Amino acid sequence: MELKPGLSALITGGASGIGKALGLALAGKGIFVTVVDFAEEKGNEVASLVEKENSKFHENLKFPSAIFVKCDVTNPRDINLAFEKHLATYGGLDICINSAGIGSPVLFSEDQTDGNTTWRRTIDINLVAVIDCTHHAIKTMQALRKPGVIINLGSSAGLYPLSLDPVYSGSKGGVVLFTRSLTPYKRQGIRVNVLCPEFVRTAMGEKVEPNFVSLMGGFIPMEMVVKGAFELITDESRAGSCLWISNRRGLKYWPIATGKAKYSVRFSSSSSNNKIPFLAPLTSQLPQNFKKLVVHTLGHHFRDATHVISSPLKLPLESDQVLLKVIYAGVNAADVNFSSGLYFQGNMKNFGSLLPADTGFEAVGVIAAVGDSVRDIKVGTPAAVLGFGYAEFIKVPSNHILPIPRPDPEVVALLTSGLTASIALEEVGQMKSGKVVLVTAAAGGTGQFAVQLSKLAGNKVVATCGGNEKARLLKELGVDRVIDYNTEDVKTALKEFPKGLDIVYECVGGNIFDLCLNALGIRGRLIVIGMISQYQGKHGWMPLNYPGLVEKLLVKSQTVAGFVLFQYSHFWKEHLIRLFHLYSSGKLKVVIDPKKFSGLDTVADAVEHLHSGKSTGKVSTNFRFQAKPN
Question: Which of 21, 194, 232, 371 could link 317 by a cystine bridge, Cβ 3.0 to 4.6 Å?
Answer without folding.
Answer: 371
